[in-house]
């Protein structure tokens, strides 16, 4: 699961608007979860505010056979039986930090080449949520906000965490009470870390598994609408 080129492929990105209609508009980038691709979260576009230009990117790695789709970082080191998880679980904390950081760095490299949007927000699911938050930590000034659905914050310290804590950008964190994919230790770490570093909002959805519900989508839309109002001021 270590390709020779771990950069994002600019030819497989799905955009909600053609190039001529993107100038000057805020950009919302969608980062999918493990075993998926750019088509997955793009299905959310009709439920999101259409003032955003939306881009859905494909993670650069290929999971081990027989898993299909793509991945942002390896999860091979985790003993899934220990957390009762199916494939798609987060990497173990001691293995995941470098992989999540490398994935976020590759994403930022793609972003630098892909757009000059005046404002950029992130929406990631599971692995994509972890990468979104890691990108926010790497470049706190670059991103207006982040939405983390069924994801987590990677443990460990990064050089600009204090700067992020000073800026406190808005972050929405949604997860379900029946999500058995993200280990409880990472949920606990995220619950402690996020309020100290970002302006946190979100909900825990009763009965929701490792997925996105209509109720959660409605909350995300409200969050994004508020972000548009702030960017317009």
TrEMBL record:
Residues 23-225 form the Phospholipase/carboxylesterase/thioesterase domain. It holds the Pfam family Abhydrolase_2. The keyword Hydrolase applies. Gene3D superfamilies: alpha/beta hydrolase. The keyword Hydrolase applies. Keywords: Hydrolase. GO terms for molecular function: hydrolase activity. Belongs to the AB hydrolase superfamily. AB hydrolase 2 family. This is Alpha/beta fold hydrolase. It comes from Microbacterium rhizosphaerae.
